């Protein structure tokens, strides 16, 4: 039985949670064996995900109940808009992704559904609800990435996608994010806790569908 709010949310989001963090796409990534076309389409779609994800971070920044929280969220915004954005541009160059696919590619259903969830939460969600979607996106990515072996694939497109999600700074951010949702969650009534649970489950499903959309193995 989980003793934190985030642990409780996660426990109730199985089997999707485990399906995400052990997804065959990630296991192939560890071996550098994601086919180039799958990696290309995954990153092209993920760049569109990141656009709304960044807006959701902005929503968290605006809705946070204290300055210290805004500072922590601003730190993550800085990473998404610098190291992560630079990675996407270098990966797109390496994969030969043209301008149109960087800016407005045809979206997969999985991308559309995930973007809608983030946009709705951005527009109507409480701080706790915004944190819930952020926690799923970041915690699940940390959890698959920490499963990587010590020896990384040679291709930087694969290797850096792993290290962007398991480096010490990212671990600290995810720890903070989970702790923040635990803190805010402690004051929620049963109805609001149930809303967070529904969102956590929906977001976890979106993560699973997102990987599935780029994996046919
Ligand atoms: C679909 C998805 N989920 C989560 C992450 C990690 N920010 C990501 N880049 N893409």
Automatic annotation (TrEMBL):
Function, in words: Catalyzes an amino-pyrimidine hydrolysis reaction at the C5' of the pyrimidine moiety of thiamine compounds, a reaction that is part of a thiamine salvage pathway. Thus, catalyzes the conversion of 4-amino-5-aminomethyl-2-methylpyrimidine to 4-amino-5-hydroxymethyl-2-methylpyrimidine (HMP).
Domain Thiaminase-2/PQQC: 13-215
Root EC class: hydrolase
InterPro entries cross-referenced by the UniProt entry: Haem_Oase-like_multi-hlx (IPR016084), TenA_E (IPR026285), Thiaminase-2/PQQC (IPR004305), Thiamine_Salvage_TenA (IPR050967)
Pfam families noted in UniProt: TENA_THI-4
Lineage: Bacteria, Bacillati, Actinomycetota, Actinomycetes, Pseudonocardiales
Superkingdom of the source species: Bacteria
Keywords: Hydrolase, Thiamine biosynthesis
Organism: Saccharopolyspora rosea
Pathway the protein takes part in: Cofactor biosynthesis; thiamine diphosphate biosynthesis
Name by which UniProt lists this protein: Aminopyrimidine aminohydrolase
CDD domains per record: TenA_E_Spr0628-like (cd19358)
Reactions accelerated catalytically: thiamine + H2O = 5-(2-hydroxyethyl)-4-methylthiazole + 4-amino-5-hydroxymethyl-2-methylpyrimidine + H(+); 4-amino-5-aminomethyl-2-methylpyrimidine + H2O = 4-amino-5-hydroxymethyl-2-methylpyrimidine + NH4(+)
Protein family membership: Belongs to the TenA family.
Enzyme Commission number(s): 3.5.99.2
């Amino acid at each position: 039985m989980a003793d934190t709010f985030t642990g409780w949310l996660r426990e109730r989001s199985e089997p999707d949670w485990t399906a995400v963090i052990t997804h065959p796409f990630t296991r192939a990534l560890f071996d550098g064996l994601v086919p180039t076309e799958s990696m290309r389409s995954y990153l092209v779609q993920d760049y569109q995900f990141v656009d709304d994800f960044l807006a959701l971070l902005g929503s968290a920044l605006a809705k946070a109940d204290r300055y210290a929280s805004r500072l922590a969220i601003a730190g993550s915004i800085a990473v998404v808009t610098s190291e992560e954005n630079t990675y996407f541009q270098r990966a797109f160059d390496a994969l030969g992704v043209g301008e149109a696919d960087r800016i407005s590619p045809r979206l997969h259903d999985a991308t559309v559904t995930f973007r809608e969830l983030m946009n709705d939460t951005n527009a109507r969600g409480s701080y706790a609800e915004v944190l819930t979607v952020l926690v799923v996106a970041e915690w699940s990515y940390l959890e698959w990435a920490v499963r990587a072996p010590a020896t990384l694939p040679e291709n930087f497109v694969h290797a850096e996608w792993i290290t962007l999600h398991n480096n010490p700074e990212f671990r600290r951010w995810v720890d903070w994010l989970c702790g923040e949702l635990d803190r805010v969650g402690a004051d929620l009534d049963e109805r609001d806790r149930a809303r967070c649970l529904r969102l956590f489950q929906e977001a976890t499903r979106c993560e699973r569908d997102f990987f599935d959309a780029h994996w046919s193995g």
